[in-house]
Here is the input.
Amino acid sequence: MSERRFEGTGVTPLSGVGTVRWYDQSVELPDPPAPESVDTDAERDRFEDARAEARDQLQAERERAAEAVGESEAEILDAHVQFLEDPQIVSGVEDAIDGGLPAEHAVEEGFADAIETLAAAGGKMAERTDDLRDIRDRLFRILSDTETVDLADVPEGTVVLAEMVTPSDTAKLDPERVAGFATAKGGRTSHAAIFARSIGIPAVVGVGESLFEIEDGAEVVVDGIEGIVILDPDEETRERASGGRDVEIRTEPVATEDGTEIEVAANLGTLAELDGAAAQGADGIGLFRSEFLFLDRESPPEEDEQFETYVEALDAFPDGRVVVRTLDVGGDKPIPYLEQPEEDNPFLGVRGIRRSLSFDDELFRTQLRALLRAAGVGEGTLSVMFPLVSTVEEVESALATVEEVSDVLDDEDVTHGRPELGVMIETPAAVLMGPELAECLDFFSIGTNDLTQYVMAADRENDDVADLHDPRHPAVLRAIDRSVQAAHAGDAWIGMCGEMAGNPEVTELLVGLGLDELSMSAVTIPDVKANVEATDDETARRVAQRALAATTKSEVIETLSDTQ
Amino acid sequence: MNEVHDSIPQMIQRTVTVVPEEGLHARPASAFVEAANEYEADLQVGPHEEDPVDARSMLGVTSLGAKGGDELVIYADGEDAEAALDALEDVLSTPEDEFDDE
Here is the structure.
């Protein structure tokens, strides 16, 4: 049997192999019986009992989600309870029972009306119709006594496949038993993706309808690095996927054989991932994607909520550094409460710092207030980083805003501190203006995903140019080199927080290029730390020199494999 | 003027302007429903001269589509009607950015 590949989005840089167990939440209803045969009182009681059971389930799941994923995820389940108790919906279902329907069909009818009403309200509320469908399906399952797969109790080596998974579902996944999961829907920022990253389960999301072609009991590989699910993998694929990772976890900072210290930090977006980062031995947070605080909600987080979040992150790394990237959104990451103009080319439009200095001035100031306050209170060192910078003027405006916010806090007598200030190096313009930028900043962090996209003019989402979108092209390496030189000449430190930083195969090259810090998904930290310790400075410099002198990507790859 | 006896519950109503700029949705709607659930009185809400909805229904309250600046009439019937009206008026008069983000 030959392999079949299903493409999706990889969300953890891990792969696993196992046996498929479908997690199917849908329930099919039989045809309703004749109305005169329905015992209205009995059906009303069944509906009442089902609601009580649903309420108990939600309560239990809420507690589990709050513990495992965080309070904000758990609040999603509160909305479910509110709809479950909604008198208009309840009376709609009861009317349908009185009209001669059994409870499950009455639920279908009552919720269909409710979904229609909510959808008609339009806007942000229309998005809540998914909540209504979830509750409806939960009531169906209770009423029909349907056994669903208990995610907490699957055999070891199970790969869970599902249309989508909810926060309460993901909270049950046990990394000891689950070899991986894949979903038809969802993206990198879905709850499932965030959770998979935090507990280190191989995961691929957004595979699409084709995922349903894979049957229960099939053997699959979930490759979170390439973002593919492989059905009926051959021996070689299987072995590669299950290749044991037997790397010691180093919780202390590491240095090369010659004593050059390299900070190895974690990229994350939510506090739920903090424990996972510390467990893998992160020295700090090299990229805190603050946009996660702003996604999946109906209004922006308030200053205090942000403040508390940043302080919690700082307190988790008392001897380390937490680099918070200010809100980084653009046309490709829609947020319901933000003004977002239609753009033909959102990757070249108003995003990152451009938004913060225009549309989102208020949000930016609120975020800076929260950050400055956190810098004065939290234990670790706070560093604030501005995304997608392309001019010195942008940095000057951002720094001036920081000063203004600081002055206001002074006037208000509010405790605050001065964080380190830096920028992401993502645009060729920032690389070329590196010396001037380093003059006014404390640090740089190279975002290799976007830097590669903009240097190579190759869309990171377009598979047909995937060969161009590769940071091992000499043009990208030279941009990195130039940024390192500029940073060090201007007394700034320089890190890397793109995916390249977490690739253990290029650790030596990156050390040789002179990077001071590498930040990555927590799961690859042990490998990278091990490689840093095994690095000899002189050899690393030679590898870097040869790679920088290469004419083609294949020469670079050859240089890298020569030294392994 | 008729003499009104305190202990006899009767239907009262009050017209209130919606203050949250974005209208009665999401957090303000949720707060409204939660407030309504604190009282015994029968509570309804709706625009002038239109059929009101149950003030305890998230679905109903949301489907009104009330925007900031709109006027809504709240109807209350029960022992604690007056207190309930005060509480609901309070919610509708709170600017959106003052809702607790618990």
